[in-house]
Amino acid sequence: MRKARQRGVRTPSFFIVLMLLAGVCKGQSAEEYEVKAAFLYNFTKFVEWPSVTESPVFSICILGDDPFESAIDRLTVGKLVGSRSLKVQRLKDGAEGKQCQIVFVGAAERTKVSKLVDSVRGTAVLTVGESAEFLRMGGMIFLSTQDGHVSVVINPAVTEAARLKVSAKLMTLAKVYKP
Question: Per CATH, which fold does 2-176 belong to?
Answer without folding.
Answer: Rossmann fold (3.40.50)
